[in-house]
Structures
1.
Amino acid sequence: MPRRFLEIHDMTRQEAHGVVNRAIEMKQSRFRSELLAGRTLALIFEKASTRTRVSFEMAVRHLGGSTIYMTQNDSQLGRSEPVEDTIRVLSRYVDGVVMRTFEHSKLTRMWAKTSIPIVNALSDDFHPCQVMGDVMTMVERGADLAKTKVAWVGDGNNMAHSWINAATYFPFELVLACPEGYTPNKDILDAGIKAGGKIRLVTDPLEAIRGAHFVNTDVWASMGQESEAGERMGVFQNYQVDAKAMALAAPGAKFMHCLPAHQGEEVTTEVFESEASIVWDQAENRLHIQKAILEWVYSGGEGTLPYTLAEI
Ligand code: CP
Ligand code: NVA
């Protein structure tokens, strides 16, 4: 059975922990393998990307495989060929798809029509590879996740949703501060809380940041929301992460951002460029976590994973 990674919950809790540990190991050993030798993955990007595209291209190369990069503009996807048809054709050529798209349902619709693995490289609803990499970044810094508070400040967007999903698998406390009307999807939030995640939604950013060990934010207008940027600038103005807010966080707290950042909007340059900022480690870890995710995808079953699924 091929594996998919459209959301963090496509792994079991134990597998997610194993993948984070494995990524740290792979980073330390500068891991290379021939796991994907003779295999080619199509990278389909309907939105811009720097980190995700290049780190996936490199991850596949480090595992001995090759990639074909496609966008909607240079394929028939941009001329209304349905994703169901596209994936049925690609399935005859390539060994997997990594896709960045708008509607998350495009990924599930494709999955329903294929027998090759699909990995979500960001959709409007989720960014699972990024958040797995962010969990790795906290763990490699020695964070005891059971005693860790993570703040999410700003938009209840795709990143916030994946953080909620992660909070059901990893034992950190997650406090999200979002303005009314920009809160995370209620079903995703409720499911996260029901699944036992230590998750709270508040409106006051300082309540989320107070005592937090990791303070996360993201752009106020995500890709596809450009026309709302002006309005959002007003809505989010009290949600900027600045030095005064960071001073309320736990001693030694770190600032996190998936990037790209808009300095002077969601974060001040002072915080972004400070010692507390670990954004470049987060960016680097995309490479390592995606190697571990691809290994999980292509290892074909728990029994065949080349590592122990140690709990974090
Ligand atoms: N964080 C992230 O996904 O960056 P890109 O949009 O550059 O891929
Ligand atoms: N929320 C952002 C994340 C970018 C990596 C977006 O979707 O544009």
Note: The domain at 4-127+286-303 is CATH 3.40.50.1370 (Rossmann fold).
2.
Amino acid sequence: MEYRQRRIALQATDGVFIIPSWPEALRNPDVMHPYRPDSSLYYLTGFAEPESILVLTPKKSVLFVRPKDPEKELWEGIRLGVEGALALTGMDATYPIQQFASQLPQLLNEASAIYYTLGSSIDSMVLEARSGQLRKKGRTGLSCMPLHDPTQLIGELRIHKSASEIALLEKACTLSAEAHQELRRIVTSGMYEYELDAAFIAYTKKRGCERLGYPSIVAAGVNATILHYQTNTKQLKAGELVLVDAGAEYGMYTADISRTFAVTEMTQLQAKAYSIVLHAQQEGISMIKPGISIQAIHTHVCDILTEGMKELNLLKKDGAPFQTFYPHKTSHFLGLDVHDSGIYMIDGASRILEPGMVITVEPGLYIPAHIPHPLAGTGIRIEDDILIEASGHRNLTQAAEK
Ligand code: GLY
Ligand code: MN
Ligand code: MN
């Protein structure tokens, strides 16, 4: 039902939306990368198979899917097929994917613009149908139908989470937060980063998470200064900090949590740096309510981090600038994708938060190994997932202690 309402919202536009699935990716001969459906296609259909294309006209919703194929299904698993997809999705019609090119010209006649993101394997079919439609009219001197990118329109739907989406996000966040607790419980010196990586996967998969939302970052010691480190092969040593940035998906929605903790015990200086990041994060979170802009949170967090960097004697005249120690932003949207859809600026101004949005708050402090400082080679990030509510906010990941 909800999928249908989302489609209807797009159908109010006088355009034909064409939304293909991600292609499957070959890993090496006969072995595919695990398939993860396209978030927007899933958001509008609940359909998760590859080789599918959604076409929405102002009048109808059509899904092209892989037909049943007993031989392929023997090797790769069940395909819903044309009838199964119709029953699952409640489309007006479903057709075999092979009919996409032949049916598209007729579907284009039902609107005055095309909404399609160029860059996929069906580009040539879409462009051919678009120019073919004009050719059929004879000599008119008219332009082809305008072609728009639907990313922003779909993003504006996806940015506001419904109650059922929030329930899935809450589940992903709670299980992921519990898994972070588990890592804190089992960490010892001598372990390898991949053991924590594996424990996170085991904890969340055992409880129904289908996959991770992104490869886990398990970064001990100097590795934590690499923002998206994911090699996860180093041995953990006493006295080091370990930064874990990991989030699992539940029902296609992902958590995104970072915690930094000591392999054994924090030194006074590590604890001082940690408390600066924690303070910045708590202050950032405490501001969150409808009407606050994303930039205002970032600015406040940066102010606190700047003070902290001064206290740590990191910001020296003619030395490395603030961005060396905090090179990323504080927040992003979260949902089906870890960096979820939705625009961050409107008319040149930072976006104002509204109830139903979900953002991360993830300040960090990274002191590169080459900087002469007692904390050189240290990275700290603390990240929670925050739902904006009419009355303020709710931290969906508070089960992971800080
Ligand atoms: N895990 C990626 C990020 O925090 O944005
Ligand atoms: Mn994040
Ligand atoms: Mn993260």
Note: Residues 256, 332, 360, 362, 383 surround manganese (II) ion (ligand 2) (CB under 6 Å).
